[in-house]
Amino acid sequence: MTTLDKLNNSKLPIIVIDKNLEQFRDKELFPKKMEKAKEILKKSGLPKFKK
Amino acid sequence: MNKPKYLYKSEDEFKVYSFYSEGIKGVIKKLVVFSHTGENNIYNLGFGDYDPKTEQIDDETITNNGDSLKVLATVASTVYAFTEKYPDALVFATGSNGIRTRLYRMGIANNLEDIKEDFEVYGLRVDNNIWEEFCIGIDYEAFIVKRKNINLQNDNAR
Hints:
The structure holds two protein chains of two kinds. Chain A contains two helices and one strand. By secondary structure, chain A is mainly α. The N and C termini of chain A lie far apart (38 Å). Chain B has one domain (9-149). In chain B, a hairpin with a 2-residue loop joins strand 2 and strand 3 (26-36). Chain B has three helices and nine strands, in the order E-E-E-E-E-H-E-H-H-E-E-E. Chain B has helices at 68-85, 98-110, 112-118; strands at 8-10, 16-23, 26-36, 42-51, 56-58, 90-93, 119-125, 131-133, 140-147. The two termini of chain B are 14 Å apart. The radius of gyration of chain B is 15 Å and the shape is globular.
C-alpha cells in the first residue's frame, strides 16, 4: 500500500516535514479573515461545548 | 474521512500545511494555516492558493480546479493533524465571502457523520447569530470544531 493509499483509507494524518514552510509560521497571512474571526468571536462568543 | 486526499507537508509545529491541487486548471499550491486568534486556545483556519511569483495567498477566489471535494478532504485531514498536536485547540473557520463559507459548509455536511465521531461541530447561524450544533441544511456564517477523540485508530485495523 502506498503512502497516499494509507492516507486515503484512514483518518490518521500522514505528514511530511518541510522546513521551507517555517517561513509562513507566525505571519498573518489571512488578515481579513482573522479580523472577521475576531469580530465574530467578540460579537457572538463561543458555543456551549459538551464538556 | 476515507476520501481521496492530496499528500501534504507541514513544518515542525504543525501549524502550516501545503499541498498541490491538480486539476483542469493545472497544478496549484495550496496553503492551510492555523493562526492563534489571541483568544485563549482559539485558532483561525486560513486556506488559499499560494502564488510563488507574488508570494501572496489568495483566499477569496474560487479556483474551480475540478477537485473541490479532494481539496476539502485534504484540509479536513490537516485539522486532524493540527488537533493531534494541539488537542485542546478550538478551530474556527469562516469563508472570506459567502461562496467560500458555503463551500466549507458543504465540506462539513458531506462528511458530517465521520467528523462527528471525532469532533464537536458547531455553526453560527446567519439568521440569529447563535451558535448551535451543526445541522445539514442550515445557513451558517462560521464554524468551530473541538476535538473529542484524540487517539485515532487506523481504520484499516478496525
